[in-house]
Structures are given as structure tokens and as C-alpha cells.
Amino acid sequence: MARWLYNVLLHFLLPLVYLRLFWRGRTTPAYKHNISERFGGHQGLPKHAILIHAVSLGETLASQPLVNALLKQYPDYPLIITNTTATGAERARALWGDKVHQCYLPYDYPWAMQRFLNHCQPRLVIIMETELWPNFLAKLHQQHIPSLLANARLSAKSAQGYGKIRALVTPMLQSLSVLAAQDNATAERFLALGTPPSTVTVTGSLKFDLSIPDNLPQRALEFKTAWQLQGRPVWVAASTHDGEDIIVLEAFKLIQRYFPNALLLLVPRHPERFDKVAELISKQGFSMARRSLQQDVEPSVSVFLGDSIGELLLWLALADVAFIGGSLVNVGGHNPLEPAALAVPIVTGLTMFNFQQITDTLIEAGALKQGKDSQELAAIVCDWLKNPEQKQKDGQAGLQVVLANRGALAKHLVIVDRLLK
Fold it and tell me: Do 155 and 34 reside in the same domain of the chain?
């Protein structure tokens, strides 16, 4: 009954879904160029593939170790990567090119999902983190297609929300073949929602298994030399959201009082905000260079706008200190392990519930500190910049956290192998 009501509501909203696609397509053309895929009208997908669904940019990046391992371990199996957002799709194509088949997962209409599954007939579906859809999972279960919720995470806040629609959520969770939780707290929350204990296992987080490209240090050195960054303090503000950029810029003004030659590398999370952030930087009176215009950082430039896709690791490799966005607004933060893996100390806002256990671990190690506003952020950054030995020690502590918690990838591959057999 719950899923029937859910489907009635979905079909009632169908006109709005079309309008939203066309509206978002005004600024991001990918949303209107792939409308057929949103409703199961896919063409040219291989049959009997391993399918990985990574809804957006964060999940796509989190899936990277697993996808790379699957390409190596199962070279004879086609691999399909599905996304929901344009940024996730663009990143997947940039990472793997023609090694995988990238497309959009249909919206969760039963007929759209049926069309999609009839077309590609996957042998295994891997869903990253928490992207759960009732009709999708029901169709997989009905057609005996094994499903793995990989790198599963569920915050206390999200668990409360799921609990309010338990009649819809519990059957969905019971359709999963395996739920691989990042930590014990996540496992307990899923069990409390009715997930069968026999399907739940704790593997740790795939995010700890991220790999740093071998050429990254050399590329970073080339930019440091070309931009004359030796001796310039560099603060990278990564994955910022609307409302955060102004706070970061205000904090940077305070930092400049003590470090007048400091450089801010500001990297907004969503491409559709690039121009808006550029206007904000100019209105605040900063001299700016933009990556999209291939502008170099001259000594007179104080803010570099990283308005490109897929280069965040490069900018983090230039950083003395990194800020992780989504943490000053009610988004829940983004992955802090990328700067940690580069031995860069981290500052965030107070809202990191999407990565709470990772955040707590990094705080305990001294690698991450939190501030509630521009003044506190500036004080934390300045304290590290004034004490380079402490900054290096705290950065190394973050790297040790990453190294000590690796191993989730191997556990996921064991599960995949079992499900494929």
C-alpha cells in the first residue's frame, strides 16, 4: 500500500519533473539533452553488465577505488556507471572515458525502471552510499538481480527521516542482497529500520582507499613554480555552497591582515554557481584569476577561482590549509579525506553530519578543527600558518588516519565476487 501511494504521488508530480528538467537545462544543458534516459529510453547499453549507481559528484568520487578495482578484476564484464546529476555524470566520463558506459539512472517510475532493466539486464547492481529508490529495488528483487548497497552511510538525522516513512523504507531495505555499512553506528541505524541482520556487514569506508595520482606532486610543483607560490600561504576552500563563499571571503580578509600575500583558491561545488561566485569575488574587491579562462596567478592576484571540474585534488596539493564546504550551511559537509591524504590540515564549519565519524576521528587526531563563522575560521587558519611545524604535524596526523583505516575496498570486492557467483 505504501509503495502504491508513493507511485500515485510520483505520477501526480510528473509534469513538474519535466518542467524542472527544462528549467535546470537553461543553465546546465545536460539536463535537457538526456531527458529520454530519465524515463528509461536508453540506447546502446551492454547487457549483463555490472552496474554502479553513483548519484552525484561525491558518490562518483567515492566509487573511484571500487570502479578501478572492478575494471582490473573483471575485465570481461561490461561496466555501467549511472548518475542522477550532471556534475556526477561529467566526472564519471572524465575519470573513465570509454572504459565504462555512463548514463543517467531513470527517475523511480516503475515503468521507467522496467524499460531500463529490460534494456541492460545487469548481472549485479551496486548502489553507492544511500541512494535508495523503492521501485528500483523492488524491480531488482523481482527479477532476482543481486544488489549491494556499498559504502553505506546513514546519519542520525537521515535515520529519523526514514523512520517517519517506515512502511515504505523497510520493504525497500529488505530487498537488498547485501548492505555494506561504513561503521557500526550506520549498521545499527539500518537494522533499526528493519534491514535483515543477515544482509548487513560493516566494511569501513571506501573513502579511505582513495588513490593519489602518481603525477600529482609533479603537477603541483609545476603550478607552484609557474605561479611563484614559494613563500605564499595558500588556503583552499573546497566544495563551497551558496552562502558559504561570502563567509570564506570575509575570513580571507582577516587572514590577509596577518599574511598580506596569502592566496585563496576558491572551488565552488556546483558549476552553475561559477559565474555568480566570480561576481561575488569582484564585488568584494579582490583581484581574481579564473581557471576557466586559463588565467595564471600573478603576484597581484589574491583569489583564484577554480571553476573547472575534476581538478580539486590538484588545488589541494597546493594548499597549506584546506576548508571543506557544505559545513557552514545545512548540507552536512563533504569528504575531508582528500586533503588528509595529502597531509593538509583541515578546517570546517560545525555541520559535518554526512561524515561525522570521519570528522570526529580527524578532530581527535588534531588534523581537523571547526569554526562557526569567518572570525573563527580565520583564527584557525592563521594559527596554523604562524606555526608551520604544528601545521605539518597536524597534516601528517590526518594522513596517518587515512592509512590506518584502509581496507574497505578488499572487503567490498569479496562481497562482489560472492554476489556474482
Answer: yes
Instruction: Spell out the residues 6+ positions from residue 5 whose beta carbon is closer than 8 angstroms to its own.
Output: none
Same domain, 199 and 276: no
Pair 79, 52: CB distance under 8 Å: yes
Distance of CA 254 to the CA centre of its chain: 30
The CATH number of residue 360's host domain is 3.40.50.2000
Together in a domain, 351 and 413? no
Q: Are 208 and 188 contacting, i.e. CB atoms less than 8 angstroms apart?
A: no
In a domain, residue 211? The reply is: no
Q: How far is CA 404 from CA 362, 391, 399, 400, in A?
A: 12, 20, 9, 6
- 411 and 400 belong to one structural domain: no
Q: Given strand 200-202, what is the order of strands in its sheet? A: 101-104, 79-83, 50-53, 124-128, 147-152, 178-181, 200-202
pLDDT for 183-238, tens place per residue?
Answer: 999 999 999 999 999 999 999 999 999 888 899 999 999 999 999 999 999 999 99
| Cβ-based burial of 214 (10 A; exposed 0-12, middle 13-18, buried ≥19) | exposed
On whether both 187 and 247 belong to a single domain, the answer is no
Catalytic residue among 59, 90, 244, 338: 59
91-125: pLDDT as tens digits: 999 999 999 999 999 999 999 999 999 999 999 99
Answer yes or no: 59 catalytic.
yes
Please give the residue range of the domain that contains residue 397. 216-404
Q: Is the pTM of this model over 0.85?
A: no
